[in-house]
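Lab notebook, bench 4. Still working through the backlog of constructs that have no structural model yet. Next entry is a single chain of 208 residues. Request: give me the structure tokens for it.
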Amino acid sequence: FGAAMSETGHIGFLGGQESPLIQDFLLGYIQGALSVNPDVKVAVSWVGNYTDSAKGKELALAQYRSGVDIGFNVAGGAGLGQIDAAVDMGKLAFGVDSDQAMLFHEANPEKAKVIPTSMIKNVGQAIFDITVRHMEGTAVWGEPLSLGVAEGAIGIADNQYYQSMVPQELRDMTSENIEKIKNGTVVVDTAYGKTPEELAKIIHAVAP
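Model written out:
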């Protein structure tokens, strides 16, 4: 719903390293944005690592200055720079992996207030799932296992910031889309299996 919240139709993505893993986040982000705004523009920047928060901030500042009003950081510690940039510019930033707003809730509420929600990886659920499979004898070892929204391994942070910053209609739309992903009505795109040329074409199509 980043594109739905955007007043400029121009959103941002700050990635760590340009790899299939992070590009996977990016493609889902683009797909979701296009579903609510076919004319959306997505500025994409790569830090080159997951630790340089100063560089992350500079890249994010450049995005915000170019017209981006909400971004998504998928860059580990470097991504915290985007949150700093959002505070400085009065913009918004989505968190990643954990509920980043609540991480800052007490220690730095100004940062928490620029994070409408975060994409959460429920690692505990993934561990529980594979443990159950092992006990049932259905676990397949040595092969990759993909767990997503349907398995409860991925979700979004539903906290006080989400409730207060995101309009009810957008929260409802998000809940509906989550259900569509769970029942297979919506299939989220993936970077895995795509060639560099195919990835570049998708990213270029929404470039500012």
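Notes after review: The mean pLDDT is 93. Residues 24 and 190 are 5 Å apart (CA to CA). Flag for follow-up if needed.
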